[in-house]
# Entry
Amino acid sequence: MEVKILSARFDIEDNHTLEVAQKHGAYGTLDKLFSMEPVEVIEEVKKSGLRGRGGAGFPAGVKWGFLPKGLDKPTYLAVNSDESEPATFKDRYILVRDPHMMIEGIIICCWAIDCHDAYIYIRGEYTSQVKILQAAIDEAYEAGYLGEKVCGKDFRIDVTVHRGAGAYVCGEETALLESIEGKKGQPRSKPPFPAVEGLYGCPTIINNVQTIASLPFILENGADAYTAHGTDKSPGTHLFGISGHVEKPGMYELPLGLPMMDVINQVAGGVWKGRKLKGVIPGGSSTPVLTVDEAKTVSLDYESMAEHGTMFGSGGVVVLDETVDMVKLVENLIYFYHHESCGQCTPCREGLGWMLKIVRKLLAGEGSIEDIDLLRELCDNIEMKTVCVLSAACTMPVRSYLDKFRDEFEAYVRDDVSAHANQ
Ligand SMILES: Cc1cc2nc3c(=O)[nH]c(=O)nc-3n(C[C@H](O)[C@H](O)[C@H](O)COP(=O)(O)O)c2cc1C
Ligand code: SF4
# Structure
């Protein structure tokens, strides 16, 4: 089932070095790139249907097309390597195993959008990854792939690595920009969107690491080779981080559109220890949970996920076996988002804390049915009333657990421990 487009060089020893990566094709697209007009590159990316891999799935070429033309201002690129959504661990593979693929993608994007300054915003905790990435950038400068004259052409590209300081919210694109500007990482109100007014008030494209790393394949092989994989509306491949209660957790590159159960059973070795499946988190902690029946009919693509009332998200699939206590899981989830709230919106700052108190009251055996209803009501009242969607990233999944596993919450009211989870 695996298709190796992004991961083609992942298993080659020392592929993070320029010498080895280049021997295996890195930077091989640049002659073709510079023979193309920027607008042709944008058209090819549009034709490939490449969708942003940071979670929202917005088509990359369309986003680039939003950049205003004829402004007397520079255009910036920010590559989002914050990767802080729980259960998400795909970008780190690119950063460590094929950083030159991403740098080549940056060059392609910069040429397409006429950008000379790219920033890579990397998760603060990625200490070993940042060293490998910076070494790769240094080598790319030395080889003339970056700097004043990229490949001897009259075209400058400078790449700056900016380390985060441990705040999940800085993965949100406008908080990321604030953070690069040296300010407190708080999301901005939109509009204006970054493509119009982003970094230092200038037009800015923000793309995920995987989005950018997909560009060399598309340029080298053409959009049709990319759309040959995946579905019509969700073309290409994705790096899926499969974790939780499976026999073979790990990172797998798969075409979009595969049935969830085939991926769990045939790729990840099935639910571990012969236990029963209880549910699946399809794309990182912020995506609504799927029941077993839903998991049996959903496919790993944007459309199928939406039809099942959830989201594709970041490709972080978490398999939950029959022993999982959904109330404890929800407590853990709310704790995370409450802790990561930047605090500028009252519904997020206060509401998530209130939700945490309620679920802890339930866990302590001191809750009531009214508390469960209140928790549900809070989800509806907080969502979409805040500057960014961090609050919704908490309320959307919590609502799904309340609606699909309500019995378990009520069991804590009835003090029926055996019903909490089938342990
Ligand atoms: C709270 C929050 C955290 C986010 N964290 C990340 C992240 O770690 N990496 C990422 O690429 N996108 C993250 N995003 C999505 C970005 O805001 C943005 O949509 C994305 O980087 C755009 O890139 P793409 O179009 O290539 O997907 C986050 C969004 C929110 C609301
Ligand atoms: S929703 Fe939360 S994280 Fe987002 S801006 Fe408001 S307070 Fe900050």
